[in-house]
Amino acid sequence: MGRAAARGYEGFGGRVEEFASESAPWDRPRRAAPAGAPNVVVVLVDDLGFSDLGPFGSEIPTPNIDRLADGGWVFTDYRTAPVCSPARAALLTGLNPHRAGFGTVAHVDPGYPGFTCELPDDAPTLAESLRAGGYATFMVGKWHLTVESELHDGGDRASWPLQRGFDRYFGSMDGFTSLHHPHRLVRDNSVVDRPSLPEGYFLTDELTEEALGMIDGLRANDAAKPFFLYFAHTAVHGPVQAKAEDIARQRGRYAAGWDAMREARFARQRELGIVPPGTRLPEGEQADAGLIPPWDALTEAERELFARHMEVYAASVAEVDESVGRLVARLEELGELDRTIIVVASDNGGTAEGGPGGTRSYFAQFVAGTPVPGDWVRDVPRELELLGGPRVHGHYPAGWARVSNTPFRSFKGGLYEGGVHAPLLVSWPGAPVRPGDRGLRDQFVFVADLAPTLLELAGVSPLAERHGRPAQEPDGRSFAAALGDAGAPGRSAQYFESFGRRAMVSAGWKAVSPTAPSPAEGAAGGRWELYDLAGDPSETRDVAAEHPSLLGELAETWRREAWRNTVFPLDDDGSLFRSRPERECALAEPVRLSPFRPPLERFRASRLTVLRSFEVRAELVLGPEASGVIVAHGDQGGGYLLAIEGGRLLVSYNAYGVMHRAHGARLEPGEHRLSLRLDELDGLRWRVVLEVDGMPDAELAAVPMLLGMAPFTGISVGYDSGGPVDWELHERHPGGFRFLGGELRAVTYLPGARSRHDATVIRRLDEAVLAVAD
After folding, report:
1. Helix/strand/coil for 584
2. Taking a C-beta distance cutoff of 8 angstroms, is the pair 89, 95 a contact?
3. Are strands 168-172 and 136-142 parallel, antiparallel or unpaired?
4. pLDDT tier, 3 (very low <50, low <70, confident <90, very high otherwise)
5. Which residues share a beta bridge with 651?
6. Which tens digit of pLDDT belongs to each residue from 631-640?
7. Is this structure's pTM higher than 0.90?
8. What does the angle CA 582 – CA 587 – CA 588 come to, to the nearest 5 degrees?
9. 3-state DSSP percent of the chain in helix, strand and coil, to 5
C-alpha cells in the first residue's frame, strides 16, 4: 500500500516511512494550563445563612474563614437560587437554574425542559472547561445534580460527577445524609461497599481527608499541574449533627435566645459594614412572628432544648471552618496558597425545616401533600446529650433560621432575601492586585457568575462545544474586575422562581410575588410586592402602591425572562411535581436480593415500600447457632429490620425514632421460609405481620407508615447497613450484626397496591408525545 493510501496518519506531525530508521517521531502536544495558572478551590456549604460566618457577623468561631476574608474579598450582595440543586447547577454551568435543567431539587423529572433535573448535554461544566484547559479536577461531598431515579446502580450515569468533568469524586450523590452514618457513599462511579463504620466516624472529616488525598496524589506525580477542587459540604443541611467535643465547645453560647442573638449579629454587621446604613430588621409578620415565639415566652425546658439545637448547628459550622483550615494548611505546606483561589459560599439561605419547635425526627417532616393524622410523629423525646449525635436526626427551630438569615426575612425555598441572599467570599493571596484593593464588595453577583469569573481568573476559555454540540451561551458574567476595582459594575438584573413563586431584581428594585398566580391572572399577574433594595435591603417596606407602573414593568420583565429561561410551566395547582415518567414504573417491580451486597439504593428501595402495602420473603437454612440480621431497611431516622437473636426472630420497627418490637417463637435448625407483611391500615399506618413457614409468629398491630424520605438508608440483606435501625440491638451486636450460622439464600420484595393517599401521576410516554405534538 502506498503512502497516499495510508490511513491513520492524518494530522501526524512527524515523518513516517516504512522503517523506523528512516522515520521521525512526533511528541504529541498535551493539554497544559496557562503558565502560572492558579489552583481553584470552591467550598460550598449547604443551607448556611447569610450571617453564619464571622466575616458576616456571626458569633460562631470561624478563624480560618475569617483569615481568608481578611486578605480577600467579602461580597455583601451575592444572591443564589432559593434551593440547593438549582444553585449547584448554576454554579457549575454558568447558566440560570432552569436553563441548566434545575427549576427545582433533583427529585423528579416532571417532563419539561426547565425541570429535567439533569445537566444539559450542551452545557459544559466548570470542571469540563478547566480539565480541557489542563487542570486536574477533583470533587468531594454532595452532588445532588442527578435525578433521584438514576442514582441506583443500574442508573444512567450521564449526569454523575465523572461524566461531568471530574477526574476524581468521593461523596454523597443524594441531597443530604447523616454525618455519623452516611447512607450511601460513592467513589468515582461506584458505591463504596462498607458494611460498617469505625467508632467515631464523621463524614466531614472523611471528606476533608479525601480532598487532601486527591491533592497529595496529584503532587506526588505532577508538581506543577493546577487543580480544581469542588468541596461541596453535606453540612450544615439537616439532619444537623456534629461531634460531641465540638458541641461541648458551644455550650452556653445560645442561652440568651434567638431574639438577643439576632440583635447581636445585626449590630456586628453594622460595625463590619456588611449591611448598608439605614438597614432595619424585619419585625412582626415580616419576621415570621406567627412561626417564631418570643424567647421570653418559652418555658425553661424549651429554652434549654432550643439552645442545645443551636449549639449543635454552631458546632457543625465550626467543623466546616476546621475543614477549611486543614485545606489551607496543606496548601501552605506545599507552598501553593499564594497561587490558589479559594471561594467560600452557601447554596441558599438558612432553612426553617425544623418548624416552630425544632425536631428530633427530621424525616417525619417530609410529608407535604400527604394527609397525615393529627397524632402523627413530629418529634421524639430524646436526652439533650444525644442531640447532634448518631441517634438523633434533628433540626433546629425556625427561630434560629431567622438568626441565620439576619438581617433578612424568610428562609430557604422562599424568594425574599432570606432565601436567596447568601455569604460569598473570595481569597487569592497571590492575585495581581494591590493589598489595598481587597475588602468589602457590594456588587450584585449571582451564582451563575461564579463559573465565568473563575475561568477568567484561571486564564482558561470555556468549552465552545460539548459532545459535538455548540455550547449554550452562559447567563453568568464574570465579576473578576471587581477584585481590583471596588467601583466595577455588577449585574443589574436577575429573575427568580421557586414552586410557582416569582421575583425580579432590576436596577436596585425587587418585585416579589410570594404565591403562584392562577391561569386567569396570567404568569405576570397575581399579587406582587415591591421593594427599593437600595434603601431597604431587608424588604421591610412594600412600596407597590406607590409605584404601580414600575411594578407592572418588573412583572412583565419577569414573564419575558421566564420564557427566555425555560421557567414555564408554573406549578399553579401542585400537579407539576406529582408527575413521574413511566420509566420509573420498573423500579417498583418485585426484586430478589442476594445477601451481603451493598444496600439497594434509597429511591430504588422506596418504590417497593413507600405509600403501599408490601411483603418481604426470606429463604434460609438455619444451623443451631444461627443469628444476625436477615433484612434491614432504614436507620435511626426510621426503618425496620428482621433478625434472629438468641434463637428467636425479632421484628424491630423504628417509627421516626419511636421503637416498636415484636419477638417470635424459637426457631428450630433447618430450612425455613419467612414472610414479613406490612399491610396498610387507615390513618397512614401499617399492620406488621411475621409468618414462619406459613404460620403467624409475631405482629405489630399498628405503626405509623414510613413515607416521604424515610426509610433513608436503602435495603441491606444479611446485615444492617449504615445507621442502625434498632440502637439497642446495635449496642448488643455492633458492626451491622452480620448473619452467621446458616445460609441466607435470598430476600424477595413484593410490592402491593399503591395507597389511595399516593397522589403520584405516572406520565405515560404516549401522553408526553401527544403533549409535545399539541
Report:
1. helix
2. yes
3. parallel
4. low
5. 642, 662
6. 999 999 999 9
7. yes
8. 95
9. 30, 25, 45
